[in-house]
Amino acid sequence: MNVERWLMRQEAQWLELEQLLNRAETKGIGALSAADICRLSQLYRLVSADLARAKTRRLGSHLVNYLQGLTLRSYSQVYQGRQPEDWRKVLWFFQRGFPDVVQQTWPQTAVAVGVFMVALAMGWWYTWADRQFMELVVPPNIISLVEDQGKLWMGSIVGIEPLASSSIMTNNISVAVATLAGGIFGGLGTLYILWTNGIHIGAIAAFVAQNDLSYPFWAFVSPHGALELPAIFLAGAAGLLLGQGLLFPRRYRRFSALKRNGTLAAQLMFGVVPLLVIAGIIEGFWSPSPLIPNSLKYLSGLGLFLALLFYLAWPLERSPTRGRE
């Protein structure tokens, strides 16, 4: 197959489909004529076949991601009449749509994880090397409690679990939304939030290690952190998508790139919020409980993390858009 000739021949159909989808998504499917709807369905099948061909021929991740985006958007328009109930759309999203978009945007998530981990390592290193840095980053009340009384601060949650849980949820969701919104500044705001959070957690982890409290500290963190940290990384990916759309539109016009990436970012956030709600419940009720052995907290954290990885890494072929390629 002559790839360049094939791309030139098919690109006109992809652009036609993209134009129809933009109209349907902006004004509703009812704004299309019967002929347009038939044409959209026809182009959806053609693009699905093109996606399968692009994967088989290994024509590059950029092209595959572009065609995946078109097929997913087309599927939601062509088959929305078969799922009139809102709850079915929500169920479909969490069964297939969310893992799909996470896998499409893994490069942005990898960047978010990398920035956070580098910052965490620096926070850890400088806390061990420089007490002034530690006092600058770690809150004074935590320093006093750990050094003067030799205990962690999580005990303050016990007895006020419902209030603490709702407060934790609100705070974490606010951080995730701010991380997303930081993408409007070319991704710099997103990177700043990831960096500062990494520095903060690294410094606290080093500080409790200096005072021989690492085991109970990580026992507290692991159950809710197994969901909370990945959720923040995904929010970081959403913010970086916005920044990428603004600064690096590639083959798209800037507005089209921002709209496309904004759709992916919104889908990521639809999945991030429930993760943070669940993490907030765990952090309020399970993580600080003195009745639960630390070993069980570690096991629960590991189990949740592996379950989340399995869910998000489920093969893309399970998506209905791929079942018809």
Description:
This protein has two domains: 3-82; 106-316, no CATH class. The protein is 80% helix and 0% strand. Mean pLDDT is 87; it is low at 317-325. The chain has 325 residues and is an all-alpha fold. The chain contains 13 helices and no strands. The two termini are 19 Å apart. The protein is elongated and about 75 Å long.
Overall number of structural domains? 2
Largest sheet: none
- Give a count of the beta strands, DSSP E runs of length 2 or more: 0
Range of helix content: over 70%
Low-confidence stretches: 317-325
The whole-number mean of residue pLDDT values reads 87
Tell me the strand percentage band. under 5%
Structural class: mainly alpha
- Whole-angstrom Rg: 23 Å
Distance between the termini: 19 Å
Query: How large is the count of helical segments?
Result: 13
Which descriptor suits the 3D outline? Answer: elongated
Topology order in helix (H) and strand (E) letters: HHHHHHHHHHHHH
Keywords: Membrane, Transmembrane, Transmembrane helix
Protein name: Stage II sporulation protein M
InterPro entries: SpoIIM-like
Organism: Parathermosynechococcus lividus PCC 6715
